[in-house]
From TrEMBL:
Keywords: Lyase, Pyridoxal phosphate. Its cofactor is pyridoxal 5'-phosphate. Residues 336-413 form the ACT domain. The lineage of its organism: Bacteria, Pseudomonadati, Pseudomonadota, Alphaproteobacteria, Sphingomonadales. It catalyses: L-serine = pyruvate + NH4(+). Belongs to the serine/threonine dehydratase family. This is Threonine dehydratase. CDD domains: ACT_ThrD-II-like, Thr-dehyd. InterPro entries: ACT_dom, ACT_ThrD-II-like, Ser/Thr_Dehydratase, Thr_deHydtase_catblc, TrpB-like_PALP, TrpB-like_PALP_sf. One of its GO terms (molecular function) is L-serine ammonia-lyase activity. SUPFAM superfamilies: Tryptophan synthase beta subunit-like PLP-dependent enzymes (SSF53686).
Amino acid sequence: MATKPSISTGLPVSFADIEAAAKAIEGSVIRTPCMHAQTLSEITGAEVWLKFENLQFTAAFKERGALNKLLTLTEEERRKGVIAASAGNHSQGLSYHAARLGVPVTIVMPKFTPVVKVKQTEGHGANVVLFGESFDDAFAHARELERERDLTFVHPFDDEKVIAGQGTCGLEMMQDVPDLDMMVVPIGGGGLMSGCAIAAKHIKPDIEMIGVQAALYPSMYGRLRGETVVCDGDSLAEGISVKQPGEKTFAIIDALVDDVVLVAERELEQAVSLLLGIEKTVVEGAGAAGLAALLSHPERFRGRKVGLPLCGGNIDTRLLASVLLRDLARSGRLARLRIRLRDRPGQLHKVVKLFDEHQVNILEVYHQRVFTNLPAKGLITDIECETRDADHLERLVEGLRDAGYEVKLVEPD
């Protein structure tokens, strides 16, 4: 994509709007730290600075835009209340600040939204309405209720006040690290990137603004290029799994953003794991998308001073555990070996001795005789084990094969 102009003239949100939002929300939203990540810098070859938006009270940047919108309501609008459609961070950020300000809030979610998300939103004082099979169904119903009950609809991204609020994240990054070369920002509907681009380009016109989308949901990527794209699948980055970007956000991103890159699920998983293992911070898939971009496209960012907003930390604990285990498996620190044995006494004992000789810790043993396509006297043993690294695992496999065993590494997808 060609270099974009640095002035936001004629766009729906101005730098002055973001400055006003910053003043309005000051003291009610956490000014999160922006810190240098030394080890991640060494891994990626870039100078990495992380903005910890996962430390907000509801663990996501969405509070910024939601609060700024709420603060612009008239007294009558506050009394009647607000409504939104969301099964994620927007619902919690809006509900939390609406309750704090005494504004009634209704959130419409699809019927099959996980119970934990419903309970979290209700815990912030919202009236949750479950409707429809999909987010589109819930969104349409929310607009109907808006008209029927004369409520104010708070869009998760395509709203000038919301965009200005999200832009305070980029404003703070530029204030804390004014010599950034690049800012790499996740894009779903585009609210965060729109606001950040306006703030950053105003302060430093030559800064590069790079958007990131999950490869399964390249909606903004495709629209910027005039391409028809398919948006479907279960992405780890559910917070940016948006099929249709906003009109206002598209106008801003088309004018100010220099490029949008795509990241695969594997890099998203690796980024979540690295942030927990190295930075000791829990980040959801969307929040890790910026780091995933650096891992996926190292040549694009090497040697540059890059700011990454960790935009959210709401990830299901079981999903996080799965991501961490899969990453351990890919790095060779956790493995499942499928070993074919002869039906002789002491065979399993001999195999276990080889694990001991190589100082490999056995976690689980699955000894299979019945459910196999081997002859009746054939058997398979699956052994899950823990090694120091990929080289350690390779030495174990070589030792088993040298001892005459047929060994297959069962790899994760």
